[in-house]
Amino acid sequence: MNTNAANSETQGVPRVVIVGAGFGGLSAAKALGNKEVQVTVLDRENHHLFQPLLYQVATAGLSPANIAQPVRAILRSKENIEILMADVTGFDVEKKLVLAGERSFPYDHLIVATGARHSYFGHPEWEQYAPGLKTLDDALGIRRRLLMAFEKAEAEKDPVERERLMTFVIVGAGPTGVEMAGAISEIARETMLRDFHHIDPSEARVILLDAADRVLQAFDPKLSEQAQGQLRNLKVDVRLKVSVQDVNESGVATANGFIHARTVIWAAGNAASPLMKSLPGTLDRAGRIQITSELNLPDHPEIYVIGDTANCAGKDGKPLPGVSPVAMQQGKWVAKNILARIKGEAAKPFSYWDRGSMATIGRNRAVADLHFVKFSGLPAWLTWVFVHLIFLMNMSSRVSVFLIWVWSYFTRAQGARLITSVGQAKKG
Amino acid sequence: MNTNAANSETQGVPRVVIVGAGFGGLSAAKALGNKEVQVTVLDRENHHLFQPLLYQVATAGLSPANIAQPVRAILRSKENIEILMADVTGFDVEKKLVLAGERSFPYDHLIVATGARHSYFGHPEWEQYAPGLKTLDDALGIRRRLLMAFEKAEAEKDPVERERLMTFVIVGAGPTGVEMAGAISEIARETMLRDFHHIDPSEARVILLDAADRVLQAFDPKLSEQAQGQLRNLKVDVRLKVSVQDVNESGVATANGFIHARTVIWAAGNAASPLMKSLPGTLDRAGRIQITSELNLPDHPEIYVIGDTANCAGKDGKPLPGVSPVAMQQGKWVAKNILARIKGEAAKPFSYWDRGSMATIGRNRAVADLHFVKFSGLPAWLTWVFVHLIFLMNMSSRVSVFLIWVWSYFTRAQGARLITSVGQAKKG
């Protein structure tokens, strides 16, 4: 095992290692930039991903480069931060080391922000038939499946098989599931409408399943109802109180019967990164580790865990939701607490400022809950576009996303409708 | 074996099958659009690729969606053209069938435009160490290798290994090799300059090898000399009269010694698609099939072969070069000949109108040979940009490429610097 040389260059300056360059890790890194600490950011990928728009890559509206940016480019101006690609495999909390295969990275303060993957409720074998949407490679794989389903249907003569190819099931009616269902229905009914000779893409069936009794469970029931109405307008077949019993290459088995479909997308359930198991602490059912109100581990105040991997109690005692504003506010807060403790001051308890939540359901449709006001339809959609543009602008030169959106809003073109081999190579 | 149903729908109308949706196949399809023929376009991919800009995807300047477009979208307005994804495996010229695995497609007139792949001069085992650049997946794979080389160098402590990681060898100094060498050198010296902590990307060595005594052999010697000067300004190490003896994971063996390099890119030599072997005719050394001046096979006038797969004599008796203008003009001509023969008229001999050639060597640098005038530097570069923009505009909504170029020209940002798994999954 070799200890990374970089960290031993500056003796005496406290070393902070951040694992994960998602919303949480990146906001911590920014807040520690050009401060009296030496920071190492480790990530498996070289890019930060704007996950809320990942469904647009999966549905061919945007290219990977429109929603992702090299971590190096984002943190370029921070002289005290080094960025290394590394697949972190565990921690040695006694020796204060982050382990990545044969490499190890010593820390004085550790920030773990490794996010979550999909959870298949104890059925990992479902993943090959029903991929989930967390990374750029996931999105490109799903895009390939969606587009190939139409291509295969065009070449298929058996009407039964053709119908199965043109049936798309989305499991889970949270924001991702609702966004995917709306976008797929729109592609079929608008973008692809005149592209084929033997099939009518508008006959595609998009089925959205959830075990709950309404879509967007985290939202106000009134907004759930409005979202369901908007999905119905987009011809999405919403089926509630339906629990999935099996997923295989023919489709989805539910208590109400078998749904034949060649394309199934998983948008139900998250599980925290399995790295949590190598940290000392208590895990909840979703695999998240219990943290203190100062965002660190009870027995290891030098280890902070934030974002989707952390079980952090909110004001009501319930765990905070796994959304980007929580991760970003926690990242900033952890940076403050680390700098305070270096100065000998006490760490302060975190409290989350919830500005509300939004979900979009295709062009012109969305729901928004800003607490003081709840609304839906075009005003909600414009708010959604505005908020996401602000975010993307902050990521720097993302002007082109805006232009692509404006362009495709008026032309209804879907610029990124390319099938590349990534999905095939990875998921077979 | 099942014969495709689509083709039997309209009896009596002549059936044209086009294999390949590159420059040649697409220009034939456009010219046959809404004419009294029924056309089927077969391609392995769902997109047409603007290959002259592929090196920009490989060097992270553009995204795949900027230089490629779904074939369906391009030919949408042609009511008589169906497009099917199919991996053509051979031909039954007696029964007049195109074979694709278990499927077959009957034709009255056949246009074969399957292009070329790289040729490793009888050493296919070199490909894994020195990938070539023909498809989007090739480009994403090379991009991954380039970016990963810098990432690995940043984490490497051994100075010898670090130098090998930062050495890039391009084999072949034709237009693609020259463009790649210039672009890699520019990325290292400009885009990435401030991105790393432990390495100085401007110390990257870019070595361009060729067995010939000058770069851009197809150009006027004066332009070759100017291109060499421009490459030197970009700090590209041009080594001529060097023939490659072996390529392995450590680098490239030449008669003048071994060059240690972790990244080698192949831009030397083309071989026509191996499908030519299943057509009746004479193949040349590059695997191209001999065609008549009417662009068809001597013994099978109903089979036309165009573009990089065809050996078509020019005015000087030498075979026409494998460039897009040849393929496009031939595609249009074949369409005319087919329509003429359907009317009972004779096919006419093709002649190529050579408007000249250009190659670009990074920002502001290029060489252009328009026959009546030869020039280089900024004027040549602006001509290059102008010509390529016209092409892209024709491909329809490619406005965003122009905006991305303008943006990155002034900011020197490289928007698409993302590492996705495609290259890894495919080439290991």
From TrEMBL, chains A, B:
Superkingdom of origin: Bacteria
SUPFAM superfamilies: FAD/NAD(P)-binding domain
Secreted recorded as keyword: no
Annotated ranges, domain External alternative NADH-ubiquinone oxidoreductase-like C-terminal: 355-410
InterPro entries in the record: FAD/NAD-bd_sf, FAD/NAD-binding_dom, NDH-2, NDH2-like_C
Annotated keywords: FAD, Flavoprotein, Membrane, NAD, Oxidoreductase, Transit peptide, Transmembrane, Transmembrane helix
Keyword Transcription (UniProt): no
Record family assignment: Belongs to the NADH dehydrogenase family.
Gene3D superfamilies in the cross-refs: 3.50.50.100
Gene Ontology MF terms in the entry: NADH dehydrogenase (quinone) (non-electrogenic) activity
FAD/NAD(P)-binding domain span: 15-331
Enzyme Commission number: 1.6.5.9
One Pfam entry name: Pyr_redox_2
Catalysed reactions listed for this entry: a quinone + NADH + H(+) = a quinol + NAD(+)
Protein name: NADH:ubiquinone reductase (non-electrogenic)
TM helices/strands, residue ranges: 381-407
Enzyme class: oxidoreductase
Source organism: Roseimicrobium gellanilyticum
